[in-house]
Amino acid sequence: MSIPMLTPAERAVCPSTVRLRDFVLTALVCPFLVLAGCPTATVAQTAGSVGTLVVAHGGGPDWNAQVASVAELVETGGPVEVSFLMGPGAGERPFQVAAARLVEAGAQRIVVVPLLVSSHSGHFEQVRYLVGETDSLSAEMRRHLAMGGIERPEEVVPLVLAGGMDDAPEIARALADRALALAAAPAEQALFVVGHGPNSPERWAAWMRNMRVLADSVTAWSDFRDVKVGLVRDDAPEAVRQEAVRQMRDVIALQYGLTGRPVVVVPLVVARGRITREKLPADLAGLPIVYSGEALLAHPQVARWIESRVREGVLALGR
């Protein structure tokens, strides 16, 4: 099913004022950017000197391969590198080495894009530290970096940090596509989007705010009768996680009671792994659902999201 990213009002050709997050979409509907003088044209002209460093959590070989796969889809006009924060990939592709490779490839500026569901997490703080945005980092997060041999880069080229996925429309589009692929009759079914989630209540609230925006976008781009979101808080103490899972199950049961049709469940996670293959199926066992475990990667919209973040970064670095 084809789902339009833009409303009719957003399809105006070459608007004089464009939200930063929408530069990619503007480029798609403005084929004569240079002639019209749209800001995206200037961004495109400078892209060749800008390197993109995609930073992911990291996992096993299959998990890391999914990240590499989506990075190959990214088209910015400049070099693209991937690094990992944990697992075997952290030692193989540490942050400082990836940055050095970008400089060797001709990058004069680097946009760092965290391939993270949320900007409200310990791993996002690690990336902030590596970019130099903060010198404050918890002992645990510092230990994780040291274990992987990850350090701040020595290169003197400017670096800018982009945001995580948060409530980006490209991510909502990917979720909608995943859900519609499982739905027999969306207008008669409900959708539940479940994420990993943080431990702290403050970060949990920030995650939920962004997920509700994603839910509104998915609702607007699909025909689902009802869309709800939730977090299993996978790394929290067991009692906290159990309560989160119980709440999720209760909501799904209510959605089934509303529709009388199996509820479509889609995970809001970066890549397929243990949580999608083992943990969530166990959490959802016995419920009337449709679930495949497909994650965000390597949906093409994730590549479009990276490109959008790079455009924002180019503007932040200055032309």
Description:
With about 325 residues, this protein is α/β, with parallel strands linked by helices. The protein contains 13 helices and eight strands. The chain has helices at about 25-30, 35, 40-45, 60-70, 90, 95-105, 120-130, 140-145, 170-180, 200-220, 240-260, 275-285, 300-315; strands at about 50-55, 80-85, 110-115, 160, 190-195, 225-230, 265-270, 290. The chain has a four-stranded parallel β-sheet with strand order 2-1-3-4, with helices on both faces. Helix 10 links the parallel strand 5 (about 190-195) and strand 6. Helix 9 (about 170-180) packs antiparallel against helix 13.
Ordered list of secondary-structure elements with their pairings:
Layout: H1 23-29, H2 33-36, H3 39-46, E1 50-56, H4 61-71, E2 80-84, H5 88-92, H6 95-104, E3 109-115, H7 122-131, H8 139-147, E4 159-161, H9 169-182, E5 190-195, H10 201-221, E6 226-231, H11 238-259, E7 263-268, H12 274-284, E8 289-290, H13 300-317
Parallel strand pairs: 1-2, 1-3, 3-4, 5-6, 5-7, 7-8
- The overall pLDDT average reads 86
Spans of 5+ residues with little confidence (pLDDT < 50)? 1-46
From N to C, what is the helix and strand string? HHHEHEHHEHHEHEHEHEHEH
First CA to last CA: what distance? 39 Å
How much of the sequence lies in strands comes to: 5-15%
Helical region count? Answer: 13
The dominant shape is globular
Radius of gyration: 20 Å
In terms of quaternary structure, the protein is single chain
